[in-house]
Amino acid sequence: MSACSHVKALAAGATLALFVAAASANYVVKEGDTLSGIAAANGTTAQALAGTNQLSNPNLIRVGQELTLPDEAHSVSEPTRSGDTHLVAAGETLASIASGHGTNADVIAGANGITNGTIYVGTLLRIDGEAFLAAPSQNTMTHTVAPGENLSGIAATYGTTTGKLAASNALTDPNLIVTGQVLTIPASGWTCPVAGATYFNDWGFPRSGGRVHNGNDLFAPRGTEVLAPVAGTVEQIVGSIGGIQFRLHGDDGNVYIGSHMDGFDHGGYVKAGTVLGYVGDSGSARGSRPHLHFEILPRGGEEANPYPTLQHYGC
User: Fold this and answer.
1) pTM value?
2) Which of 39, 99, 183, 269 is most open to solvent, judged by the fewest CB atoms within 10 Å of its CB?
3) Which of 202, 200, 205, 207 lies closest to 87 in space, CA to CA?
4) How far is Cα 133 from Cα 170, in angstroms, rounded to an integer?
């Protein structure tokens, strides 16, 4: 073999090695990692990551554990925006604001979750940014049947039903599952955080201390159940502003925050629809009309207006 041919062969081998490495990329779990956080940072979902690694409990990962990333995973960089904002004055429209900033009305509407063209005086609008709509995962995961398990118990663990689980796995008799059998778990949906709540697009409204409203207030009677919109891991937080607050690291890669509750319910790993707490007026909302201040942080980054998502799912 000539020197030139040898170099070409080495180069081809190096290229192949890089391709194989990319196709079977791994991630080593670090202190503080969660499955949803790892998934979001690598362009996949917690469901897909759990399925690829046959994790029956997505909440149980350990420091030093090596996870195989799904084939579609890729490094994700957060979308950037200019940081330009505009305080809405009387008589202004989206079109006039857009013209003054050298952009178009659709860009501003998307960045602020405006679905009907209506804007309010005093609202602080972002001039650009990501138009965001949370979507139920289309990915499935798997579960390996352990000794003593039954289909109804497995279904409850993953927030689905025995019927859906049986249909996904073509089980003619739901009572006939065996230890070691690998079941496909159907993808989960998206649940309204406060059923029957009243709300409007109050994103960007001014708040005390120079703050801006980075969410939507969902008004409901005190004590109304607050539900997990997606499956994921819940942190329970108490603070002077947010009061009794949950922070849900969703399996879909997004972070969901609910504030001003009167009390907590379930924490840790939860399924969609699990009761997380109860509507109230804790923290800086003390004495106001009971509500849940609700935020969505796409991929755990900067807040996005939850209004289009709430509207889309009929909340």
Assistant:
1) 0.69
2) 99
3) 205
4) 33
